[in-house]
Every structure is written in structure tokens, then in C-alpha cells.
Amino acid sequence: RALHGDRGCTLSVVDETRVRARLAATMAVPVAPDQAVIALGVMSTVVAFESGRATSSKMGLMRERVREAMSTASPGHGIATRFLLAQRNSKDASAVDAAALAENATHGDLLFVDMPERFYLCVWKKVLWYRHALRHFPAAGFILIADPDAFIQLNHLSEDLRSVQRLIDRGAASAHVHYGLVLWKAFYNAVSEEPAVDFSGWLCDDSGALRLRRRFERCRDVLRNASATAPERPEWLLPGKGADSAYDAWAEATLQPLKGCKGLQRGTRRALERMEASSGPYPFTSGPLFGLSRPLAELLAAPGGPADEWRRRIERTQPLRMYFSRGFRIPFTLRSAACYPASFDATHGRWVWELARASGFALDVTLVNTPFMVQHHPWLSFRHGAFSNASL
After folding, report:
1. Do 85 and 59 form a contact (C-beta atoms < 8 A)?
2. Packing angle, helices 306-314 and 344-358, rounded to 10
3. Beta strand 188-189 pairing with 194-195
4. What is the pLDDT at residue 367?
5. What pLDDT shows up at residue 146?
6. pLDDT in tens, 32-42
7. Under a CB-based contact definition with an 8 Å cutoff, are residues 143 and 244 in contact?
8. What pLDDT does 231 receive?
């Protein structure tokens, strides 16, 4: 079946055993590290997430599915793939289990990065992947990151990035490329180190985020004015705990009369007074697939850069101080998310934005958008009533 063709194709019911045998017989030879023009890291784990959102057995099955899907690619794409796993358990810092080592002995595509599998380090795994790829894939012009549940058409991806490289070579794009589905966040909470939780729309420009930002600034000013006349205003500790409920009730009642401020998400109400004034809307690339050109990855992954600064800051936030003091027990109100901050793709985008700000915005970053529902399909796509390979 033309799984990497431009047109959707109808998949008929076939004998699964025969398909697997044919795939095994025709599986492409893995791309050697020194021959790879693109390095692709797939997020994964060999232990259960602290929050319980995914088990190690489920992630192992997903790795098998990714290998099976990628085996359909034609040779010559030049993409080397590695599954990114933490080297240690979250609590006892024990090494990975024998099953993972046996899997790697069979396939040779697992990368154990030097970190514990902790719920606030999801985005940190990306930094360690950049640092590894820059050292071990010397010819890779792009370093990408994918989710483990994405169907990535390697030949299309390779040709797409080759076209981006041709734009760079002609001077039509900067050497510093941020590639993926470009979206925007309205603000950044510099106290909790969290991006805005509110959705700014699927547009690749900043218009939706700018409208949200201006709306939030109006609501923030209302809360600040109310605070000046309400010295007994309740404070908050953690979402939904103790004085938080009292603060939520106070903020909602205060914002109720103002059009556009009623019914804001709880996280937004708390973040309004803590919006970083200088940030404004900033872009990021959303999973399940994004990445950086090599020169931009070198800047982002450099020691002492924005990623290192972020880790120092987030480990001083109130939720993580509580997490450490309780012997690595996740605060109850954060257990519903697999990762913290929840939008760690937006945290990654924030680091790129901070690189540009640190240069006085002299750093020229080209955003390359993979168009929503044209090239980037977050949901299953159907054509003529059948599953289509237009889907991720």
C-alpha cells in the first residue's frame, strides 16, 4: 500500500501474519549516525510515569508500532531514529530494567539519557536529546522530536526538510529554523514557569494570541485595582487547596461584571497578576512532531542557556519545593497531568523566544509551519469513507 504517497489509499483487510513477514523481509537498513542528515528522537519511557498516565508495557507496544510504521519507508530518506528514555527511575534512581536492555540489544534504537523519569523533566529530555544528537550525528542538519503515537511519513519529512535546506542555502530563510505546527501563547507566568493555559487558536500568526493577551491585560488591571481596595484579599498556595478556593471565589466575583473576564479558567485567574509584562505573545511548535535546525539547536542546548536557567527556576517554584520535601510525591492537584508544565511544547518554544530576546531580537529565527489539516493532522483523516495516509 502506498503509505507514503500523496493520495489517500483504502486499506483492505489482509492477513496480518503475511504483512509482518513481508515487512520483516523488506525492512530498510537503519541509517548510520555519520550518514544521517536528520536525527529524529521519539519520546518514550521504560518505567511508568509518576502520575500513572502511561505504563512501561504500553510504551513498549507503542515503540513496536512506530518501528512497524517506519519500516514502510523507502530507502534514502537519511533519517536516523532513536527512542528517548530516562536512564533512571524517578524515586530510587535505579538503572533501567533488563527487558529494556534486551530490547535495545535486538533493535539498537533506544537512547538512555542521563536523567530520572520525573514528571517535571519531560521537556528536559528534549534538551539532552539535542546535546546527544549534536555530538553523535555530525551530518544532521535538523534535529527533530516526535511523540510515540505519531505516524510519521519519513520520505515526506525528509523531502520537506531538504526543501527547507534549499531555502537556507539560497538565503531565503535563516540558518536558525524552528520547524513544526506553529502556534502562539498569549503570555508566560514567570512565577510558576508555566505557559498560558488558554488556547489561542490554530492560526500560525499571532493575531489570536494578541487578542487574548489584550483581554487578559484588561482583566488583570481589574484585579489589581480591586486588590488596592481589598487588603484582605485571599492568597493561594496550590490549585484547589486551602486558601486557593477562597481566592478563586474572590477573583471570579471581582471579574464577573467585566465583559470577557467571566468564566476564565482557574489557572488563568491565578496567572493574571503574574503575567510577565515583557513577554507578549510568543510562538512555539506543537507536538507530535517539531524540531530545530542544527545551528539553533546548538544555541538552545548550550550550557548556561535558557534551558539550564529554566531548570534552576522551576525547581524553586512552590509546587516543586513541595514535591521535593514530600520525598518526590506529586502534589494531588497535579496528578492528572503526565507532565508539568502541561504545555511543555510551549516551554520549548519559550526557550527559543528567550534566545531571540537575549540578542535584542537580532537573532533571526525562521518559523517553518507544517500547515494544520494540510500537512499536520492531529486527528485521523478519512477520504472516501476510509482511513487515509494524509493523517499523521
Report:
1. no
2. 120
3. antiparallel
4. 96
5. 93
6. 888 899 999 99
7. no
8. 53
Cell of 130: 539535542
Is the pLDDT at 266 greater than 70, yes or no?
Answer: no
Best CA proximity match to 197, nearest among 127, 87, 275, 292: 275
Give the tens place of pLDDT for each residue, 286-338: 878 999 999 999 999 999 999 999 999 999 988 899 889 988 888 776 777 77
